[in-house]
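ok here's the first one, seq then struct tokens
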Amino acid sequence: MSYSEDLAERVRDLLHENEGLTEKQMFGGLAFMLNGNMACGVVGQELMVRVGPDNYDDALSERYTRPMDYTGRPLKGMVYVEEDAIAADLDGWVSRGVEFAGNLPPK
């Protein structure tokens, strides 16, 4: 699966000041890693965000989100965010992923 280069570039612009930032091909798209922990990524035209188990239900209660189910089974703590939500608040969604990944020990 391909991913939106435009969206990936917009995410890079938001993350460029974070130390320990790397990119990795994952889940058929591009993942943004902080100190080896996935924070967010781009799959197709959507954003995938690692919100963590404690924030999972709250994230899913928001419009234009759904469980990340890359393998056919939802990954608790990971959500897909559709284009309409990205347009309204890309920075907020990316920040959620950064906050969660930033609280994990480096790999």
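and now the second one, same deal
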Amino acid sequence: MLTEEQIAETRANLRELQVEHHDLDQVIDHLMLNPPADDLLVRRLKKRKLLLKDRIVALEHLLEPDALA
């Protein structure tokens, strides 16, 4: 079980990751709509976005383990 302090830190971390994920989504969309897009950059950003999503899901599960069961 997490302490209140750990829960607060995890929520803050989760929010930061969600903001970064959203920002990456906007950058990727912008790059795709305004060619010439740097394909390597877009691939790297998409990979980073997927890694962030995985971390977000893990933190959400940590905060609310019963919600996913």
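notes on #2: Residues 29 and 35 are 11 Å apart (CA to CA). The helical segments are 4-33, 39-63, 65-68.
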